[in-house]
Specification:
The protein has two domains: 200 residues, Growth Hormone, Chain: A (Up-down Bundle); 227 residues, MFS general substrate transporter like domains (Growth Hormone, Chain: A). It is built from 21 helices and no strands.
């Protein structure tokens, strides 16, 4: 019976994971379709559009608040579902502002009303994403046996990656060029497809027994955060996640310009890089999930380390390819970079679950989400700033881009060293840290 209890119910996991199919339709519509229309079709400068897209990173602390609320403040007797559904409804409402905002900006790119609607779109959609995201992660964790929580979340993430590959094909067929009617149709179809996935994927997946501890008087969110932060293992893990996000995503905003500036490649050629990278991520994630399916979440340190080492090696080689202008190496290196990132993602997902306590699951997952979102944005901004600064200092595209890739590799190697210092196993067993702060001791 013990072995039976530890089995992951694949059907239920796939049902819950299909939530991310709706997420893909929404994210692609907002971040790819609309961005391209604003910048390319309407000729709006990329900077204000990028700043709007970055709003969600500035709002990331909401993820801790939402996670804590979903641990301790039920709505109509449910802890996770009201926050998930409420957040996604907000997201849908935000997306519906895309057509009128675009129509106003198409008439006048400096339209105050147009920019107000565009800001509200990103703001409302961003708030909805953050309010619902952490409770959804917590729901996955609630539904999986302890030894399979990382695997359950990995399956959900794989479904997201697959949907992110497929959703653009639908939008490409719906919006070949900007026309108000075509954009309106794409938005209505996208939202119309997303909402059923968001609703039915999690319907019936929360049970009251999951929150037996919630009858205790909950700690305020600030005190809960201080309790978590008092544990040195949690602090180190936050730094590990933050540095990893900065080191991996510093290339995100400069990768395609790198192809044009250093190798003279056209837009179509560098756009295809996303497919090579994405395929590598999928292969890495699926392979790592299958091969490590029998491991407990806290036993994924080796998986994360292997992924980090592969990713760091590919970035270092990419830096050398930039410095010596070895164009033939680019596609293999990008595919292997994605492969390493996929392995690292599976390992890190397992560690996320291991480094989350049952009592404050939503708050912990909110903090880890905060680390990933904020520092992903920091990494993207830092990559652009380093590119401009190094280009100004050296006058060489090859040195500027090559240096950034090498610095990213060094950051990931530092992540390997940090991970080796975190006692994930003792945290997963519920053991107190060696030096327990008075606050943590009093709260236990």
């Amino acid at each position: 019976m013990e072995e039976q209890a530890e089995k992951l119910r694949i059907g239920r996991t796939l049902k819950i994971g299909s939530f991310h199919v709706g997420s893909a339709f929404a994210d692609i519509l907002l971040s790819a379709v609309w961005n391209r229309i604003l910048i390319t079709s309407l000729g709006i400068a990329a900077t204000p559009v990028a700043l709007l897209a970055a709003l969600r990173y500035l709002l990331a602390p909401l993820s801790i608040w939402a996670g804590h609320r979903s641990d301790s403040k039920p709505i109509f007797g449910k802890y996770r579902l009201p926050y998930i559904w409420g957040g996604r409804l907000l997201m849908a409402l935000g997306l519906l502002l895309i057509p009128p905002a675009t129509l106003l900006l198409a008439e006048d790119t400096s339209s105050v009303a147009g920019w107000t609607l565009a800001t509200l779109c990103f703001l409302i959609a961003g708030v909805g994403t953050l309010i619902s995201g952490t409770p959804f992660l917590a729901l996955i964790r609630d539904n999986a046996p302890p030894s399979k929580r990382g695997q359950a979340l990995s399956i959900a993430q794989i479904m997201l990656m697959v949907a992110m590959v497929l959703a653009p094909a639908l939008y490409a067929a719906l919006v070949k060029q900007y026309e108000p009617a075509a954009l309106l149709r794409a938005v209505l179809i996208g939202v119309g497809l997303a909402l059923p996935f968001w609703f039915f994927s999690v319907l019936g997946e929360e049970r009251r027994a999951m929150h037996a501890e919630a009858n205790e008087t909950p700690l305020p969110v600030g005190q809960t955060f201080r309790l978590i932060w008092a544990d040195s293992r949690a602090r180190l893990f936050f730094i590990f996640l933050a540095l990893g996000m900065v080191s991996i995503f510093a290339q995100d905003a400069i990768l395609e310009p790198f192809g044009g500036d250093v190798f003279g490649l056209d837009v179509a050629a560098t756009t295809r890089w996303n497919a090579y990278w994405g395929l590598g991520v999928l292969v890495g994630m699926i392979g790592a999930t299958v091969l490590t399916r029998k491991r407990m979440p806290h036993e994924q340190v080796g998986t994360a380390t292997l992924g980090l080492l592969i990713t760091a090696t590919m970035l270092a080689l990419l830096g050398l390819a930039a410095l010596f202008k070895v164009q033939a190496a680019l596609v293999p290196l990008l595919a292997l970079f994605g492969f390493g990132f996929g392995i690292q993602t599976v390992g890190t997902i397992g560690l996320l679950m291991a480094m989350t306590s049952d009592k404050h699951a939503g708050a912990y997952l909110g903090l880890w989400t905060l680390a990933q979102l904020v520092f992903r944005g920091v990494g993207m901004a830092l990559g652009g700033m380093l590119r401009d600064g190094l280009l100004w200092a050296t006058g060489s595209y090859t040195i500027a881009y090559g240096s950034i890739f090498v610095l990213e590799a060094l950051g990931l190697m530092l992540c390997v060293a940090l991970l080796a210092r975190i006692d994930v196993a003792s945290f997963a067993r519920g053991e107190q840290p060696m030096r327990l702060s008075p606050l943590a001791a009093a709260a236990e």
